[in-house]
Design goal:
Radius of gyration: 20 Å
Helix content: 25-40%
Distance between the termini: 18 Å
Order of helices and strands: EHEHHEHEHEEEHEHEHEHEEHHEEH
Structural class: alpha/beta
Low-confidence stretches: none
CATH architecture of the largest domain: 3-Layer(aba) Sandwich
Number of helices: 12
Largest sheet: 10 strands, mixed
Number of strands: 14
CATH superfamily of the largest domain: Isopropylmalate Dehydrogenase
Bound molecules: 3-isopropylmalic acid, magnesium ion
Strand order of the largest sheet: 2-1-3-12-11-4-5-10-8-9
Length: about 350
């Protein structure tokens, strides 16, 4: 098969981790007889430095023309980087929001899984972590507070900022359908997370999720308030299978879920639309403090590449081979600094890529 992949190395550790993901993909392509054609585009600070904007229309067109996009990370240190002196719509993150909207990537899948080998890195008490957990956060990605009207005004000398949270039933229905469909391939449970005791958008969310649930009698559905969910994630993460939630809640809960795995450097993500196209990126940020030092953990990006093979290209066997290589590398005791524990062998970013490629 011929795979047309656009890469967005981005900022910070982005270029290093994308390089290692390509190394692993190339090995997969060799072994299983595929041909990969890569094309790089600029986004985030890297694009600002060259074009003055975080994402050009030409770059969007390149991404649209590809089968899938593999991304590293974007953004810099918000306290020190000159990118954050620019107006909000010209900052690195605006590029990410723009590509999500332009490609209609409304479904963001963020798996959070506790690797038995990394149990020691889990910050939860052993009586909780010993049950293990394997959840998938299905975050709505193109609506809600992120894309509602916003402005800052001054009224009678008082500054006032307004953000708008809007969802229509179609936006809710399509993400709910994705959530139930994926639950069918997992443990048949959907926990829909909202703030229906306060917000109208959440009450509509809950009503539409219940309507969709009728088409999936084999999937158990439950509703949970977002504050309770934040608590349950640290109290009893094993109870979750698919967490279905809106954009802002999903942003916050997915960081929390990643932290309970003890290793944000391990978590992949996929952003999908209604076609087979997808944008795949690690759940973590650009870590500018460790950029260029060859110490970043490339595993989240490598696992994102596995998600790409599975969801966009339907190459399950190839995706499995990457996920198995990650398990094997951990079993063999190799760790980057972020997941290092006593008795293991510490390796850098590029060596981790080599070790993974060898195990394909
Ligand atoms: C994420 C990030 C982004 C988001 C930022 C960088 C705009 O935190 O992908 O979770 O909030 O969606
Ligand atoms: Mg986030």
């Amino acid at each position: 098969m011929r795979l047309n992949i656009v890469c967005i190395p981005g900022d910070g550790i982005g270029p290093e981790i994308v390089r290692e993901a390509k190394k692993v993909l190339d090995r997969v392509a060799d072994k299983y007889g595929h041909e990969i054609c890569y094309k790089d585009i600029l986004m985030g600070g890297a694009s600002i430095d060259v074009h003055g904007v975080p994402l050009t229309d030409e770059a969007i067109a390149e991404a649209k023309a590809a089968d899938a996009v593999l991304m590293g990370s974007i953004g810099g240190d918000t306290n020190t980087s000159p990118w954050y002196q620019l107006p909000p719509n010209l900052r690195p993150e605006a590029g990410l929001l723009k590509i999500r909207k332009a490609l209609n990537l409304f479904a963001n899948l963020r798996p959070a899984y506790l690797y038995p080998e990394l149990a020691a890195a889990c910050p939860l008490k052993e009586e909780i972590s010993s049950a293990g957990f394997d959840m998938l956060i299905m975050r709505e990605l193109t609506g809600g507070l992120y894309f509602g009207e916003r402005k800052t005004i001054e009224e009678n000398g008082i500054r006032k900022a307004i953000d708008t949270l809007t969802y229509d039933e179609n936006e809710i229905r399509r993400i709910a359908v994705k959530g139930f469909e994926i639950a069918r391939k997992r443990k048949h449970k959907v926990t829909s997370v909202d703030k229906a005791n306060v917000l109208d958008s959440s009450r509509l969310w809950r009503a539409v999720v219940n309507e969709v649930a009728k088409d999936y009698p084999d999937v158990k559905v439950e509703h949970m308030l977002v504050d309770n969910c934040a608590m349950q994630l640290v109290k009893d993460p094993a109870q979750f299978d698919v967490i279905l939630t809106e954009n802002m809640f999903g942003d916050i809960l997915s960081d929390e879920a990643s932290m309970v795995t003890g290793s944000i450097g391990m978590l992949s993500s996929a952003s999908l639309n209604d076609t087979r196209f997808g944008l795949y990126e690690p759940s973590h940020g650009s870590a500018p403090d460790i950029a260029g030092k060859d110490i970043a953990n490339p595993i989240a990006t490598v696992l994102s590449a596995a998600m790409m093979l599975r969801y966009t290209f339907d190459l399950d066997k190839e995706a499995d081979s990457i996920e198995q290589a990650v398990k094997k590398v951990l079993e063999d005791g190799f760790r980057t600094g972020d997941i290092m524990s006593a008795g293991c062998t510490k390796v850098g970013c590029s060596q981790m890529g080599d070790l993974l490629a060898e195990r394909i």
